[in-house]
Amino acid sequence: MRNLTIYCTTIKYYKVLDNLPSYIKPLGLGKNIYPNYWFDEKNEINISSLNSFYAEFTGIYWIWKNKIKSMSQHDLIGNCHNRVLWLNKLYSNKQKLNFSSLYSNLLRENNNLLNEYEVIQVQPITFKNKSLLMDFRQVHKVSALDDCLAFLDADLKKDFLNHLNGHKLFHHNMFITSVKFFEEYCKIIFPWLEKCMAYCNEKKICFGYNSRMPAFLAERFTSFWFSSFERRSLLSYARLGKFHLSNQINNYVNTIKLPFTFVQYPTIHNF
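Request: output the structure for the sequence above.
Response:
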C-alpha cells in the first residue's frame, strides 16, 4: 500500500483541523499566524504573496516545491480545504438521517480505490443547460478563460476546450494522485497561471468577486487535467458548517466525532 498524505489548506486557524486523521496535514495559507506544529506556506520556497489571487494554489505550489522531494514517485498526495473534506464512499443521494459521526465517514488510508486508480476526484457539479465555458462567462462577466486558452500548447488547448464545452465540473480543486502525476500537473499549471496573472493585471480584472481570477481559471484547468485520466474514480465530500468550524465549541468537544454529524453530507449540485 502506498503512503497517503492529504494537505488541508486554510487561511485561518480552526481547532477542528487538529482533530483530523494523522494523514491529513493542515497547511496555513496567506498572512495569518498558525500553530508551530502546522505547515505554513510562508516558510521555505513559496509564493504566499499571491494568495489573494491564487487562493489554495499557493499551497499547492508550496507542496510541489518543498514536500515531494522526500516522497516516493508512487506515494499518494492530495488536497482538501478547511470546509471540504474527502469521504470514504461515493454517494448518489444526500444523506438525510445517519447516526454515525462525520469522522467515521472520512476517507481512510486503506480505501481500495487508492491502489486501484491513478486519480481520485470529487463527484462533479453537473450543468444541465450550459457548458462549463458558458457558465464561466455568465458568472465572471469577462472573457478571461477564452483568452487564456491561448497560453497553452495547441494540443492541450484543444483538449481543454473540449472539456470546457462539456457539462461536468470537478470542483473545489480537489484531487488525489501519485507524486509522479502531481509533479507533471504542477509543471504545466504554474507556468500557465503566471501568464494568466500577467493577463489579469494587463486587463485590470482582479477586483471584487473576480479578485481571485487566476484561481477561478485554475479550477477549470484542474477539473480538466485530472478528468483526462482513464484510470480515475470518484469520492463524495463533506462540507463543514459553522458548528464544526467553531473554535469555541471545539475547545470542549471534537465536533466531527459526535454522532449525527454525518446527516447533511454529502452536498450534491446539479444545475
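The first helix runs from residue 51 to 54.
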